Amino acid sequence: MSQVYMKLLDNNKAWVKEKLSKDPDYFLRLSKLQAPDYLWIGCSDSRVPANEITGTQPGEVFVHRNIANMVVHTDMNMLSVLDYAVNVLGVKHVIVCGHYGCGGVLAAMGNQQFGLIDNWLRHIKDVYYLHRNELDAIADTEERGRRFVELNVMEQVMDLSKTSIIQNSWKNHKRPTIHGWVYDLKTGIINELNVLMDGMEDVSGVYKFEDKKS
Ligand code: CO
Q1: N- to C-terminal Cα distance for the chain?
Q2: Buried-exposed string 52-82: b where 16+ CB fall within 10 A, e elsewhere
Q3: What angle (nearest 5°) sits at the alpha carbon of residue 156, between those of residues 126 and 144?
Q4: Distance 6 CA to ligand 1 centre (A)
Q5: 10 belongs to the catalytic site
């Protein structure tokens, strides 16, 4: 009996055939080296696939996804991905890409309980609290949600800049540049936010680490 999921494995075979027909060495070459220029931190949402919406191919983007594209400083998964991308792969750009209509962000805007995930959403609620004056002043709920998505992305960009991983790389290698983007599910267009960070001058106060004494 044919199972629905079998479609995926059939698709895979068809994809391999197509790739090989254009380039017989395609997989051999990719298997030898991974040298992506980009680290993508995006939402797990199935409608926001990093490669597809940016027209990039396997090998071009190192990807980390979680609910609402969060940079949580106690998240070993995120930190490990970031450290590997920055210090081993040497990515030139880190992109935090959120999306309008993000279920995680919208859930964090309300008061309903959802279970375990409430602990993850707490980090997003903190972003709301930080920007409550601006957000509370937006009467239209959908409009407020869109702005909250943007502010959440900006905060995650800043959270990246607060890691020693990023700060040490800026000092030693003058990379990566950190970008904040928002994808619009309704149009497919990515909106670039005005939040580019690429050096220590963008970090201030207690977040700025001194050089490590050896
Ligand atoms: Co989302």
Answers
A1: 64
A2: ebbeeeeebbbebbbbbbbbbeebeebeebb
A3: 60
A4: 27
A5: no
Distance in angstroms (rounded) separating the CA atoms of residues 76 and 86: 15
| Per annotation, catalytic residue among 64, 97, 99, 144 | 99
Tokens in use for 83?
């450290």
- Has 43 been annotated as catalytic? yes
Interatomic CA distance for residues 193 and 162, integer angstroms: 19
Rounded to whole angstroms, how far apart are CA atoms 118 and 25?
Answer: 47
Upstream peptide bond of 58 is cis (omega within 30 degrees of 0): no
CA–CA gap between residue 197 and residue 84 (Å, rounded) = 20
- Mean pLDDT over 37-61 rounds to 97
Q: Which of 10, 23, 29, 47 is catalytic?
A: 47
Confidence band, pLDDT 50/70/90 cuts, at residue 1: low
- 23 classed as catalytic: no
Domain ranges, ordered by start, for the chain: 1-33, 34-203
Is residue 102 part of the annotated active site? The answer reads: yes
CATH topology of domain 34-203: Beta-carbonic Anhydrase; Chain A (3.40.1050)
pTM over 0.90: yes
Q: How far is the CA of 2 from the centre of ligand 1 (A)?
A: 32
Residue 97 catalytic?
A: no
Measured CA to CA, the distance from residue 36 to residue 29 in angstroms comes to 14
